[in-house]
Every structure is written in structure tokens, then in C-alpha cells.
């Protein structure tokens, strides 16, 4: 049977979504290297050009900032992977209240940089909740005009719970605002969160560096719960074996590998005879 052409499909959005999330398996390994936008020099990103050069071949999409794209992607690598461009910021780790963000990049600049999507953080329940939700809706209003998908990050303040009740609430608000992808944290009963925003795809943030088996388990549990992928940063680039780590995460996300199988991939990239169990 000939597939029906979908007169209602937003072709620009779909084209970019297909660049971000593989239509072959509906999965994505996004590499988050946007941390300096509020952390400044970040462990593992001091030589960001080398980190990006090394890991780019193994990710599907790079989440980063305008400045990092300009300064740290080698000219020959520009365009080799889709960019999820962070377009909110304005805070720093030196200030207790992290939620004080505004939009930092215009949609025209995102288009000029050939971003596949743009990312905005939302701090639900924090001091600047309304400002950050309006950042998201303002960017969606602009990005929709040009067919650019917006990824909403459910950012959490320093002392906020990362449980199902909170994260599902924040994710649902992002979906309701019109986000095309939701990035949130893993929590118990994660499948309930995924179901509550279906069919909007959910990717999982890694959080602070833990350990290869723990990060792999989080990736595995996220995929089993219905996430389309992960957007990991520190658990990859702060590991002593970042290539092994991203290959292992890739195998979990795209190959449905178990943690044990992924650890074998990780170990194969560890120098010497050492092995993690
Ligand atoms: C912060 C972000 C970061 O990109 C992302 O969460 C960091 O990745 P990781 O936690 O895996 O280091 O969006 O709000």
C-alpha cells in the first residue's frame, strides 16, 4: 500500500527531528557539552576542542552553546553532527538562585548556525518559574515559525526533589508549552513520566559524574522505561575512558545492550589489562 502523504505534517520540524532522533530506531545519543554556560571552566571540558573532536564520531547530536560551536568545533567537523543549541542562560554557579535565566540567542542566529534544534531550561517551582516558562514559550513561538524543534530542559534548583511527582509535573508543563522534546532526570517509576507526556519524546540527563556501571544502568533503565535516549555529559567526558563510555551508552541506546554487555564494550577500550565489573 502506498503511504498517504500527510498534508498536516510540519515538514521542517520533522526533517530536523529526524536529524536529532534517528527515524531508524527512534533513539538518540545526545552529548551534552553546554556546562560552561553557567559553570565556567568545567572538569573534562578545559580542552573542549579535543573533547568534542574525540567524542563527536560516537554521538548522534551535540548539545552545546553558540560560543562553544564557534570556538571548539573544528572547521572540518562543522555540520557533521546536528547541533542542539542552548539558547537560555544568564546565570552562574556563583549565584545561589540558578533559575534566573533569559533567552540568550535569537532564532535567526540559531538558523544561521544551522542548529537542528534549540534548548531552553525551565525551572518549575523555582523563584523564576514564570520567567523561564515564558522563555520557553517565547522561543517556541519564534522557532515554530521557522520549523525548528525546541527541546525543554526540566532544570532543577540545588535543593529540589528529583522525584516522579515533580519531574512529571515539570515535563507536562513543557509539553503543554509546545516543546518537541523533553529532557529531564531519571527517577523511580520513570515509565509513568514517559507515558504522561507521550508521544513527546523524552531524553534523560546524566547529572553529576557517578560511575560507569551506575551511568550505564541509568541509561538502560531509561530506555526500558520508554525514553528515546540520553543527553549525557559529565558521565561521559569526565570519565577516564570517555570513548569507552560513549560507545557503551550507544550500545545500550541503539543496540538494546544490557549493562553487562555495555561494560564489556567499555572494558575493551580501557588501556592495559584493567577491567571494571
Ligand atoms: C543542565 C543541562 C546540561 O546540558 C546537562 O544536564 C548536563 O548534562 P549532565 O548532567 O549529563 O552532565 O542541560 O541543565
Please give the structural blueprint.
Blueprint: H1 11-20, E1 28-32, H2 36-39, H3 48-55, E2 61-64, H4 66-72, E3 83-86, E4 88-89, E5 102-103, H5 107-112, E6 117-122, H6 129-146, E7 150-154, H7 164-177, E8 181-185, H8 190-197, E9 202-205, H9 212-224, E10 229-232, H10 234-237, H11 242-255, H12 259-268
Parallel strand pairs: 1-2, 1-10, 2-3, 3-6, 6-7, 7-8, 8-9, 9-10
Antiparallel strand pairs: 4-5
Helix pairs in contact: 7-8, 9-11, 9-12, 11-12
The structure holds ribulose-5-phosphate.
Structural description of this entry:
By secondary structure, the chain is an alpha/beta fold. The chain has a domain of 184 residues: TIM Barrel, CATH 3.20.20.70. 42% of the residues lie in helices and 15% in strands. Strands 1-2-3-6-7-8-9-10 form an 8-stranded parallel barrel, surrounded by 6 helices. It has a two-stranded antiparallel sheet with strand order 4-5. Strand 9, helix 9 and strand 10 form a beta-alpha-beta unit. Helix 7 runs parallel beside helix 8 and helix 9 crosses helix 12. The model has no long low-confidence stretch (mean pLDDT 95). The site of ribulose-5-phosphate (5RP) has 14 residues, from helix 10.
Amino acid at each position: 500500500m502506498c503511504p498517504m502523504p500527510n498534508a498536516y505534517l510540519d515538514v521542517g520540524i520533522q526533517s530536523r527531528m529526524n536529524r536529532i532522533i534517528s527515524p531508524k530506531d527512534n533513539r538518540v545519543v545526545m552529548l551534552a557539552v553546554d556546562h560552561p554556560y553557567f559553570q565556567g571552566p568545567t572538569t573534562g571540558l578545559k580542552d573542549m576542542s579535543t573533547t568534542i573532536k574525540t567524542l563527536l564520531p560516537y554521538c548522534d547530536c551535540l548539545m552545546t552553546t553558540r560560543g562553544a560551536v564557534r570556538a571548539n568545533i573544528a572547521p572540518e567537523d562543522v555540520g557533521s553532527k546536528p547541533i542542539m543549541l542552548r539558547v537560555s542562560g544568564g546565570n552562574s554557579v556563583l549565584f545561589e538562585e540558578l533559575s534566573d535565566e533569559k533567552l540568550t540567542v535569537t532564532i535567526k542566529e540559531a538558523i544561521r548556525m544551522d542548529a537542528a534544534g534549540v534548548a531552553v531550561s525551565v525551572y518549575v517551582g523555582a523563584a523564576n518559574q514564570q520567567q523561564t516558562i515564558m522563555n520557553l514559550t517565547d522561543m517556541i513561538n519564534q522557532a515554530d515559525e521557522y520549523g525548528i524543534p525546541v527541546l525543554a530542559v526540566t532544570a532543577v534548583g540545588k535543593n529540589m526533589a528529583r522525584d516522579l511527582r515533580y519531574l512529571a509535573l515539570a515535563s507536562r508543563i513543557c509539553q503543554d508549552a509546545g516543546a518537541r522534546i523533553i529532557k529531564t532526570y531519571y527517577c523511580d517509576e520513570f515509565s509513568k513520566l514517559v507515558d504522561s507526556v507521550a508521544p513527546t519524546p523524552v531524553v534523560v540527563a546524566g547529572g553529576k559524574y557517578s560511575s560507569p556501571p551506575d551511568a550505564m544502568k541509568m541509561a538502560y533503565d531509561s530506555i526500558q522505561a520508554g525514553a528515546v535516549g540520553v543527553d549525557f555529559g559529565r558521565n561521559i567526558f569526565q570519565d577516564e575512558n570517555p570513548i569507552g563510555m560513549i560507545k557503551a551508552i550507544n550500545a545500550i541506546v541503539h543496540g538494546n545492550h544490557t549493562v553487562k554487555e555495555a561494560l564489556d564494550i567499555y572494558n575493551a577500550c580501557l588501556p592495559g589489562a584493567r577491567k571494571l565489573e
